[in-house]
């Protein structure tokens, strides 16, 4: 049988169709699916199995391994395989024998097998191919050869499975098709239909016996077309009979059929017959009608889409115009924002930086200097007697002078320097890469330039002077203290006569102290901090709560306390001012002292000269300094301490001049001793009267008695013995 005859066999058999309702059941024989190929490796050598598994897994093949024929049979029965790699030499049973058993089994004979052999002799290969092997692989393995031959075997096997499945499905389709046969004798006009066709048309008793009755089954609108097609085909005017028309089924024209036929001439009597088939194509026609309807709808939708596309194009054009306009407005807004940002950074009167921007730059420059150990200095400039300028010439003149001073400052600055208005007639200048000495030299040049300049105000020439304080960053522990020390130097410059430059290094130089601040300092000569200090009754820890220190302030009637760490060492000061700034914050009372204390507080040893502390506090804007012994706080000195010292000293010296007799000095000592004894004697009575407030009474009285004792001891040093 030729290949063409094999292909046409299902079509020929389709003419012998069973009746509707008598179709055979069918189950696909293919074991193929969408999963990756599964390969069984049957080899007794572990190394060979491992190599083959690695090579096949590179192709994303799944693998199973068997070491002997029995194990291989178990895996073959359990799994649907796409390929078997079979070693020719197996223990117990040779691979060729296992292959013979597989090929003799209906269930396994179609599984492709590749024989693995260590020798490529003609006898081995011939017997392998004769038994049913599709290919062979020789040892040692070449990965590329293994992959190529395994892939080819699996693809061929799958193609065969698909072909087998397609043929089975095709036979089933023909058997399941709604069709039937008819036979028309052209000479005697006898018409015959098969039982399946009669059943398909719903004819039970009356079947058409001639062509006219057959045509009666066609729809009236299609009847003439069917008759003409038959006549043209019989007369030879058309080469084939192939026509679609509506046929009455169960007395209703509800089905479409395809009529096909062939003209046959009888060899005995020469009569002509037309044999054909009627195939139900109702579902196809419905699909075609639905498709035509869908095509019309698609065409309508396409027109609507084109109209919509036109509208969208117009909208896109309008949107692009709006986008262009928006981008233009955005650029204008960006320029405006840049202008506003510039305005927010610049002082509108002078053109210098405002204070907020200057402080931001200050933090950046401080971090840079600290990180790279570079120099950084700060200068504070104040116009001398500026209030007098405003009172005499008016605020417009004052503004004109402030602008002129700012212009001079910026003209003397480098690109890396920053000039900012610190407030009123005061300016702050940051000088990176400049130490304190260089900053003082720069400030002196600026001072002389301003001193030599005159400002034209309504035709009048006005001259001003400035005082400048400078400080280098090494003296300060943080940016705030750097500004603070520069401010102290500026204050000292003003107290020393104005129109000068003072550096932070000169704050300890007594030669420039104002005369009025030296008088009390001279009285303190020879005394130490221990003589003047107020004893620290309580030294709270930095981990204590603010509630405890506030309670101490109120009960002891003090305004400050030294703060210590876990070892009792001095770490800072906490004052009523620090507390008062945050008293309204949520959760204030439960916060720790370390979050609000002054960490860079000034401390002196108990042996430090009292006049040195006095001179410092006269110049610096600090309220308290801590007095320590071996880094542990023992007392505090504030401005009130020096006032009390002065008051007690003058009270003991009398109201006359400084030339007191030795007897008068002794008399004052005795008077101080009597006061001390009187307060000590009153202590028991006060305790009995204030039982409800026992501890504050004791602490307060002991503090006063201790202060009197310190004064008495200090003045005793003035007595010549």
What can you tell me about this protein's structure?
The protein has 721 residues and is α/β, with parallel strands linked by helices. The protein is 50% helix and 18% strand. The protein starts with a helix and ends in a 5-residue tail after the last helix.
Approximately how much beta-strand content do the residues carry?
15-25%
Category by helix and strand content: alpha/beta
Distance between the termini: 152 Å
Q: For the residues shown, what is the average pLDDT?
A: 80
Q: Uncertain runs with pLDDT below 50, 5 residues or more?
A: 1-33, 511-519, 654-661
Give me the count of strands.
Answer: 23
Q: Major sheet: size, sense and barrel closure?
A: 5 strands, parallel
**Cross-sheet strand order for the largest sheet:** 2-1-3-4-5
Query: Approximately how much helix is present in the residues?
Result: 40-55%
- Taking all Cα atoms into account, the compactness measure Rg is 58 Å
By DSSP (H or I, 4+ residues per run), the number of helices equals: 23
Shape: elongated
Label this structure with key terms.
elongated, 23 helices, alpha/beta, five-stranded parallel beta sheet, five-stranded antiparallel beta sheet, 50% helix
Produce the secondary structure layout:
Layout: H1 3-13, E1 38-42, H2 46-57, E2 62-66, H3 69-78, E3 83-87, H4 95-103, E4 113-117, H5 122-131, E5 135-138, H6 143-176, E6 179-185, E7 190-193, H7 195-201, H8 211-216, H9 220-234, E8 241-249, E9 252-265, E10 272-280, H10 282-345, H11 355-372, E11 376-383, H12 386-393, H13 395-411, E12 418-423, E13 426-432, H14 436-452, E14 455-457, E15 460-462, E16 466-472, H15 479-495, E17 501-503, H16 518-523, H17 529-532, E18 534-535, H18 546-556, E19 560-564, E20 570-575, H19 576-580, E21 603-605, H20 610-619, E22 624-629, E23 632-638, H21 639-653, H22 662-689, H23 694-716
Parallel strand pairs: 1-2, 1-3, 3-4, 4-5, 16-17, 21-22
Antiparallel strand pairs: 6-7, 6-10, 8-9, 9-10, 11-13, 11-16, 12-13, 14-15, 18-23, 19-20, 22-23
Helix pairs in contact: 12-13, 22-23
């Amino acid at each position: 049988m030729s290949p063409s005859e094999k292909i046409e066999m299902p079509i020929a058999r389709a003419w012998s169709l069973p009746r509707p309702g008598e179709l055979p059941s069918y189950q696909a024989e293919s074991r193929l699916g969408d999963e990756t190929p599964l390969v069984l490796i049957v080899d007794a050598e572990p190394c060979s199995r491992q190599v083959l598994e690695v090579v096949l897994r590179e192709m994303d093949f799944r693998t199973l391994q068997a070491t002997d024929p029995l194990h291989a049979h178990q895996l073959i029965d359990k799994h649907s395989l796409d390929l078997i790699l079979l070693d020719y030499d197996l223990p117990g049973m040779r691979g060729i024998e296992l292959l013979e058993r597989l090929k003799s089994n209906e269930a396994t004979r179609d599984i492709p097998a590749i024989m693995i052999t260590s020798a490529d002799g003609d006898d081995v290969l011939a017997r392998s191919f004769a038994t049913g092997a599709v290919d062979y692989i020789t040892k040692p393995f070449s990965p590329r050869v293994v992959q190529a031959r395994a892939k080819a075997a699996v693809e061929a096997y799958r193609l065969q499975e698909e072909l087998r499945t397609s043929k089975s499905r095709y036979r089933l389709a023909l058997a399941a098709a709604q069709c039937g046969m008819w036979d028309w004798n052209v000479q005697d006009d006898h018409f015959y239909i098969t039982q399946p066709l009669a059943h398909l048309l719903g004819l039970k008793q009356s079947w058409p016996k001639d062509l006219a009755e057959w045509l009666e089954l066609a729809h009236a609108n299609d009847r003439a077309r069917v008759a003409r097609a038959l006549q043209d085909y019989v007369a030879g005017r058309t080469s084939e009979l192939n026509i679609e028309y509506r046929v009455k089924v169960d007395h209703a024209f509800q089905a479409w059929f395809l009529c096909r036929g062939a003209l046959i001439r009888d060899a005995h009597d020469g009569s002509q017959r037309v044999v054909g088939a009627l195939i139900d194509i109702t579902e196809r026609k419905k699909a075609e009608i639905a498709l035509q309807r869908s095509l019309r709808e698609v065409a309508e939708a396409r027109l609507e889409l084109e109209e919509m596309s036109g509208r969208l194009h117009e909208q896109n054009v309008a949107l692009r115009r709006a986008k262009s306009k928006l981008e233009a407005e955005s650029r204008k807004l960006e320029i405006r924002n840049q202008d506003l940002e510039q305005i927010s950074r610049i002082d509108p009167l002078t053109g210098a930086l405002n204070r907020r921007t200057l402080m931001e730059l200050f933090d950046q420059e401080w971090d840079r200097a600290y990180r790279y150990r570079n120099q950084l200095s700060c200068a504070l400039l104040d116009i001398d007697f500026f209030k007098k300028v405003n009172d005499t010439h008016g605020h417009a003149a004052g503004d004109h002078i402030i602008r002129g001073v700012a212009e001079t400052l910026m003209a003397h600055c480098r690109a890396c320097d920053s000039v900012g208005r610190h407030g009123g007639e005061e300016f702050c200048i940051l000088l990176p890469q400049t130490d304190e000495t260089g900053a003082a030299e720069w400030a002196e040049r600026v001072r002389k330039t301003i001193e030599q300049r005159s400002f034209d105000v309504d035709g009048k020439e006005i001259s001003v002077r400035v005082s400048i304080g400078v400080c280098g960053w090494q003296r300060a522990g943080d940016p705030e203290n750097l500004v603070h020390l520069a401010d102290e130097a500026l204050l000292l410059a003003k107290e020393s006569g104005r129109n000068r430059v003072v550096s932070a290094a000169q704050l300890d130089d007594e030669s420039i102290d104002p005369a009025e601040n030296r008088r009390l300092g001279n009285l303190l000569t020879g005394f130490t901090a221990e003589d003047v200090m107020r004893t620290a009754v309580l030294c709270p820890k930095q981990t204590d709560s603010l509630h405890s220190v506030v309670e101490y302030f109120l009960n002891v009637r003090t305004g400050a306390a030294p703060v210590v760490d876990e070892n009792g060492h001095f770490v800072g000061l906490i004052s009523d001012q620090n507390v008062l700034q945050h008293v309204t914050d949520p959760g204030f009372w439960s916060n720790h002292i370390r979050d609000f204390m002054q960490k860079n507080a000034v401390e002196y040893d108990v042996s430090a000269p009292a006049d040195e502390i006095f001179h410092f506090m006269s110049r610096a804007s600090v309220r308290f300094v801590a007095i320590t012994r071996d880094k542990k706080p023992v007392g505090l000195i504030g401005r009130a301490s020096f006032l009390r010292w002065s008051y007690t000293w003058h009270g003991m010296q009398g109201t006359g001049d400084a030339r007191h007799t030795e007897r008068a000095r002794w008399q004052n000592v005795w008077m101080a001793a009597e006061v001390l004894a009187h307060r000590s004697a009153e202590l028991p009575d006060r305790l009995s009267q204030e039982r409800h407030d026992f501890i504050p009474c004791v602490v307060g009285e002991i503090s006063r008695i201790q202060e009197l004792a310190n004064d008495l001891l200090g003045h005793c040093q003035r007595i010549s013995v």
